[in-house]
Each structure stands twice: as structure tokens, then as C-alpha cells.
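Quick illustration, no need to memorize.
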Amino acid sequence: MKPDLPLDQMSTKDKLQAMEALWESLAREGDEIPSPDWHRAVIDERLRKVEAGEAEFIPLEELKARRRK
């Protein structure tokens, strides 16, 4: 079912509020949403790096700057 939302008529604030409502609803149903296999592999690899002392942690602003490049 595709929702019939007047997106072209909604303000950015209204769209963000709608997204928040969707996320809150999905969060309540979290156990019903299956996580894909590739997601488990990514999490396992990240945990392995943290435990091995190989993980790189950077400030959020630095991450944003890297993403802009």
C-alpha cells in the first residue's frame, strides 16, 4: 500500500514530523523487522575491529568533513 501523502504541499517541518512518527511506529515493531544477513556481517566485523584495537574513532565533525569531500 502506497500512502497518499501531499508531499508537495507539506513543509519540511511537517515532513520531518511525519518521518519521526514512522520511525517511532517502526521502533515499536522492531522485533518484527528482520535484519538482513549482510547487516550481521558488518556488525561482526566492526566488533572484531574494536576488540582487536583496530577500530578508528573520529569526531563527528571530522566524519562530516570527510563525507563532504
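Helices lie at 12-28, 37-51, 60-68.
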